[in-house]
Amino acid sequence: xxxxxxKDLKKFSWWKxxxxxxxxxxxxxxxxxxxALSWTKKNQKDWTVxxxxxxxxxxxxxxxxLVISTKKMxxxxxxxxxxxxxxxxxxxxxKSEVMKIFKKHKLAPALFLSGLPGDVAGGVVMNAxxxxxxxxxxxxxxVHSFKTMDFEGSTTYSKEDIKWSYRKSSGWKKSVIYEVLxxxxxxxxxxxxxxxxxxxxxxxxxxxxxxxxxxSVFKNPFPLFAGSLIExxxxxxxxxxxxxxxxxxxxxxxxLGGATAQDIHKLITLVQKKVYDLFKVRLETEVHYLxxxxxxx
Length: 297
What we know:
This protein is of the alpha+beta class. It has helices spanning 30-42, 95-104, 109-113, 120-125, 192-206, 226-232, 261-279, and strands spanning 4-8, 20-25, 47-50, 56-58, 63-69, 76-81, 84-90, 143-150, 153-158, 163-165, 168-170, 176-185, 239-240, 243-245, 253-255, 288-290.
């Protein structure tokens, strides 16, 4: 595994923005991840994990220390036992690949995973999910356990060890997730293929899946919906330079080409202010900010 300097991170971001990583590596397995973490300790550098890049806003000033990309950690296996399907995934396995396994076995998680971007480790970190109309609808429902690594070694967390909440998991210390074990009952879902086609069609119609976005920008302030509030504020389709609130779904912000991370942040801030001024609702970002940011208001 090579550790390189000054790696451009734009191509690792779905928003296609961001500066350079001071140092960068792509471990393929647990041992290479261990080597990367040892390097940061030896060289007294911070480390930042970068997964599939779907739900992050990388600073134009880049990220100091070592950026550990998990995109090459893509091995997985599965087996049936005790009337359940178990899938062992490395951190970088895409949700779309997991969806195919569940679909092959005609199991319900394939439905909620269809069209859901990102990798399994990111799914654990943010308890990724969709609307309540599906079962399961959040990652916490399909996770059995996961393994993390830090300077002290590996730790295994069971599902019950973690506090799961809306778009968040907590109760585990800062470390790198390198393996996730998923589990679901082998009870088959009726008419699964038709339901998946309907769900994908619905998402293609309502979300800008072919454009440069990060997915949903804001968490829904239940019982309200962020997209609806933004639309009511008159911002659906609003454009500011090379950045635009999606005309398809107001909770998506699009890079039309040539935008910077700061441009996106400015539009995020404008949306938050407008919605608060009109409805007194503070929209919390679902997207994670990475790297150096002077001030975020």
